[in-house]
């Protein structure tokens, strides 16, 4: 609660929280099926209608409500992004911390493996994994998690290496503190700032990657709505029905922006040196 | 002739129109060939004042808010344009910084960096640059100058690098030289060399010198005038003898009183004589070696003998001061006792793991910034496998009171001052009732007045709890105040050990004598430091090197000196 209150005193925090909260509400409603129309129902008489009183954001080629489809799509995209980034952050943190702490062979093995993953462009690697595992939601989560694990590993390992040599870690060793205690209390707590920033950035990237995979037909499968698929559908109708492009694109752009603003604000809030100043 | 005349100089930081003023109107003059020392503690505005004169402050987010700084009777440095300043910097106003290691570009040869000045400012080229560079290095007494030109900064010691920095600053033949704590990062014997060099150069070139330092004792040997600053104001400004002998302001008196005067053993402690107690810490033949160049499938090229056969013991209620310069192995010895580095030989006997605790040099770095006082003090208790119960909380409160800190367990380290943080570290080290405290340069990072208070606290705690201290320090004057016995470490070995009074009043080993003669003191005015350029020998030995045994000579009831020659 204290974190949220501090967030709301922070200008970019306010904007980020509001944007993400709006999308989160839309996502939850979408996942619960509380949409204005059935996102899958086709209305032959209302094909390619512009935004209006019945269909607020217009309809697509099959006469399906764009708003309803967007709400469900946001839900799926957010769920995929959260799950995959959660997995990546968890795996990356464990790998990065242990690599920094134990060093030597383990460090070399972990970091070279991460280098191999990083050598591939993110989307290409995701495509490769999807190609192996077959398209679908679960595959998207796994693929995006694997793609972003090296970034978390690096983000954690760097500062962990320098934290490891700080005197407060030496001091902890002189008390005889356990390895687990030092790793969690001294290293991890000081990694909260880089991690939150990275998590929010990665959420934004993961949203984009998920959209790209769906756009290419490898993520969410039709007729389930998703942001990427909706963009894909709008390609040929860009001039006749621009609303089909604009609304999903706007949602992607705003949510990426929202996560970035939220990340900046969280970094300030978690830092005890600026928290008191904000309070 | 007045070289620089500063009137009502005010400097601030922050957004334009919303600056926080940190220097509130100072006045001073610098005459050619004269040294003005600006003395103050951290945050006094001494460095900001100096940086405002050559306007380096502009690059650090600061601005001159008012006043004049007339250089050479014609240019007002406070209002000069950046273009004008660029022509002045280096050519008319030189600068020497605190950290020679970070002031030089690590990837360029030393010769290239000196040569740049001659190329840019004197229009020299080719052979002439090299000749001028060699002459510049000769002038700052760097032996073998021609060879040094082709070396990279990392191949030279800190003292050498600071001399290179001085050579660079002097290459432009400035009429005013600003030295910002130029010896603070250096060992005391190297500091003496640099001070000697500065005094000699000032005499020879007639350069005006502004010398900024926190150590009022250091400037006595060099300064003609002294300005004492506090909180952005000059509280006193006068001739050096006047300020040192008849200080007019309370704060100057306070500073002079707080500076630990080295008194050649006269100030050594007389309490707590040894009466055959069982040692709380017994170290026998401790050696720590680090292999160099080894690694996966690579051969070890050599071994650094950081600590070589060090033995001593420590009884309850006693302080053993371990003194030496950087690379002497004093910190490594301390770390080996706490098991932070693995000894390669020797025996360390303590009464259990919790019996020895350590206080580190930098209190900012040794407290996790994300933990509250409660968490910090609880850590040793948790590490010992105990629960943080009401008794432990009670002990926290007692200890906080004992080290004179507020009884607030929910504060974070950044809410305390440097001295308070170090007291918090001391309280933390005492949580488990240790028998021995290892204090590794524990007061070195503190301002002198804070230093004195922490030393007093340490002495009180020692008497109250019967603690034994292993006090590791480079500062002989501080060690004199707290140590009962002193061990002098040189190149990884103890060369002299004994009662503090005996070692400090009649040092026998040549290194101890050199160390003591280099200590700056308020009583040493305008002395000629003898320039010697001897460097500490390399501790890198071939694999399998066995150091020769030390033979000891008893020179007093509790005073022994190693007979091996200085290698």
UniProtKB/TrEMBL annotation, chain A:
The chain crosses the membrane at residues 15-34, 78-102, 122-148, 187-208, 243-266. Pfam families: BPD_transp_1 (PF00528). Its main location: membrane. The keyword GTP-binding does not apply. GO terms for biological process: peptide transport; protein transport; transmembrane transport. Keywords: Cell membrane, Membrane, Peptide transport, Protein transport, Transmembrane, Transmembrane helix, Transport. It is found in: Cell membrane. Residues 74-263 form the ABC transmembrane type-1 domain. It comes from the Bacteria. It is a multi-pass membrane protein. GO terms for cellular component: plasma membrane. Belongs to the binding-protein-dependent transport system permease family. This is Glutathione transport system permease protein GsiD.
Automatic annotation (TrEMBL), chain B:
Gene3D superfamilies: P-loop containing nucleotide triphosphate hydrolases. It is an enzyme of class 3 (hydrolase). InterPro entries: AAA+_ATPase (IPR003593), ABC_Ni/Peptide_Import (IPR050388), ABC_transporter-like_ATP-bd (IPR003439), ABC_transporter-like_CS (IPR017871), Oligopep_ABC_C (IPR013563), P-loop_NTPase (IPR027417). Its main location: membrane. Residues 6-256, 283-516 form the ABC transporter domain. One of its GO terms (biological process) is transmembrane transport. GO terms for molecular function: ATP binding; ATP hydrolysis activity. It is found in: Cell inner membrane. The keyword Magnesium does not apply. The keyword Nucleotide-binding applies. It is a peripheral membrane protein. CDD domains: ABC_NikE_OppD_transporters (cd03257). It comes from the Bacteria. Keywords: ATP-binding, Cell membrane, Hydrolase, Membrane, Nucleotide-binding, Transport. One of its GO terms (cellular component) is plasma membrane. Its EC number is 3.6.3.-. Belongs to the ABC transporter superfamily. This is Glutathione import ATP-binding protein GsiA. It comes from Palleronia abyssalis. The gene is gsiA_5.
């Amino acid at each position: 609660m204290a974190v949220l209150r501090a967030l709301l005193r922070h200008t970019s925090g306010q904007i980020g929280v509001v944007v993400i909260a709006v999308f989160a509400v839309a996502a939850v409603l979408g996942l619960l099926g509380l949409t204005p129309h059935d996102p899958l129902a086709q209305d032959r008489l209302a094909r390619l209608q512009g935004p209006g009183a019945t269909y607020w954001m217009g309809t697509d080629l099959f006469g399906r409500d764009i708003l309803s489809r967007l709400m469900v799509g946001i839900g799926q995209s957010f769920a995929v992004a959260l799950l995959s980034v959660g997995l990546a952050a968890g795996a990356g943190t464990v790998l990065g911390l242990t690599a920094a702490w134990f060093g030597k062979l383990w460090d070399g093995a972990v970091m070279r493996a991460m280098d191999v993953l990083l050598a591939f462009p993110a989307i290409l690697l995701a495509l490769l994994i999807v190609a192996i595992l077959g398209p679908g939601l679960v595959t998207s989560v796994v693929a995006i998690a694997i793609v972003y694990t090296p970034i978390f590993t690096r983000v954690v390992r760097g500062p962990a290496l320098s934290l490891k040599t700080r005197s407060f870690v030496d001091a902890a060793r002189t008390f005889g503190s356990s390895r687990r205690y030092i790793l969690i209390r001294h290293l991890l707590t000081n990694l909260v700032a880089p991690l939150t920033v990275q998590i929010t950035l990665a959420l934004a990237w993961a949203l984009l990657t998920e959209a790209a995979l769906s756009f290419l037909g490898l993520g969410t499968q039709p007729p389930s709505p998703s942001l990427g698929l909706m963009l894909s559908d709008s390609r040929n109708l860009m001039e006749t029905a621009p609303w089909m492009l604009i609304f999903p694109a706007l949602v992607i752009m705003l949510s990426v922006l929202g996560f970035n603003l939220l990340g900046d604000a969280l970094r300030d809030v978690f830092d005890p040196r600026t928290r008191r100043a904000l309070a | 002739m007045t070289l620089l005349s500063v009137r009502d100089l005010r400097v601030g930081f922050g957004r334009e129109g919303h600056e926080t003023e940190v220097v509130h109107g100072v006045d001073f003059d610098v005459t050619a060939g004269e040294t003005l020392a600006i003395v103050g503690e951290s945050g006094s505005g001494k460095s900001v004042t100096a940086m405002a004169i050559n306007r380096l402050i502009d690059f650090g987010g600061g601005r001159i808010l008012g006043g004049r700084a007339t250089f050479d009777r014609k240019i007002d440095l406070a209002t000069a344009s950046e273009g004008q300043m660029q022509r002045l910097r280096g050519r008319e106003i030189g600068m020497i910084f605190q950290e020679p290691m970070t002031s030089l570009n690590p990837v360029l040869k030393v010769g290239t960096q000196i040569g740049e000045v001659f190329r840019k400012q004197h229009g020299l080229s080719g052979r002439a640059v090299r000749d001028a560079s060699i002459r510049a290095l000769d002038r700052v007494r760097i032996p073998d100058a021609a060879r040094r030109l082709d070396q990279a900064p990392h191949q030279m010691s800190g003292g050498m690098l600071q001399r290179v920095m001085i050579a660079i600053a002097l290459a432009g033949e400035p009429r005013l030289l600003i030295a910002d704590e130029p010896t603070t990062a250096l060992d005391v014997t190297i500091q003496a060399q640099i001070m000697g060099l500065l005094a000699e150069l000032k005499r020879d070139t007639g350069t005006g010198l502004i010398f900024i330092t926190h150590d009022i004792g250091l400037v006595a040997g060099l300064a003609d005038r002294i300005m004492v600053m506090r909180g952005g104001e000059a509280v006193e400004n006068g001739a050096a003898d006047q300020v040192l002998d008849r200080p007019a302001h309370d704060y100057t008196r306070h500073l002079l009183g707080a500076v630990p005067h080295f008194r050649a053993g006269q100030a050594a402690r007389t309490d707590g004589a040894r009466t055959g107690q069982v040692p709380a810490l017994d170290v026998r033949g401790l050696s720590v070696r680090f292999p160099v160049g080894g690694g996966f499938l690579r051969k070890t090229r050599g071994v650094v003998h950081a600590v070589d056969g060090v033995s001593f013991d420590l009884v309850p209620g006693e302080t053993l001061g371990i003194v030496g310069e950087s690379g002497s192995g004093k910190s490594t010895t301390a770390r080996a006792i706490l098991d932070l580095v693995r000894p390669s030989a020797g025996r360390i006997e303590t009464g259990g793991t919790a019996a020895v605790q350590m206080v580190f040099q930098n209190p900012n770095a040794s407290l996790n910034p994300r933990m509250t006082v409660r968490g910090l003090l609880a850590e040793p208790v948790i590490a010992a496998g105990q629960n943080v119960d009401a008794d432990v909380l009670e002990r926290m409160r007692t200890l906080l009171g004992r080290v004179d800190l507020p009884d607030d367990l929910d504060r974070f380290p950044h809410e305390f001052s440097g001295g308070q943080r170090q007291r918090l570290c001391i309280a933390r080290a005492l949580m488990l009732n240790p028998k021995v405290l290892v204090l590794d340069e524990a007061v070195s990072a503190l301002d002198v007045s804070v230093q004195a208070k922490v030393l007093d606290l340490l002495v009180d705690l020692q008497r109250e709890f019967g603690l034994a201290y292993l006090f590791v320090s480079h500062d002989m004057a501080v060690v004199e105040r707290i140590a009962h016995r002193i061990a002098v470490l040189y190149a990884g070995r103890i060369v002299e050990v004994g009662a503090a009074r005996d070692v400090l009043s009649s040092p026998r080993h040549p290194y101890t004598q050199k160390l003591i003669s280099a200590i700056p003191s308020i009583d040493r005015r305008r002395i000629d430091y003898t320039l010697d350029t001897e460097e500490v020998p390399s501790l890198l030995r071939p694999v399998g090197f066995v150091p020769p045994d030390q033979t000891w000579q008893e020179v007093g009831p509790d005073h022994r000196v190693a007979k091996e020659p200085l290698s």
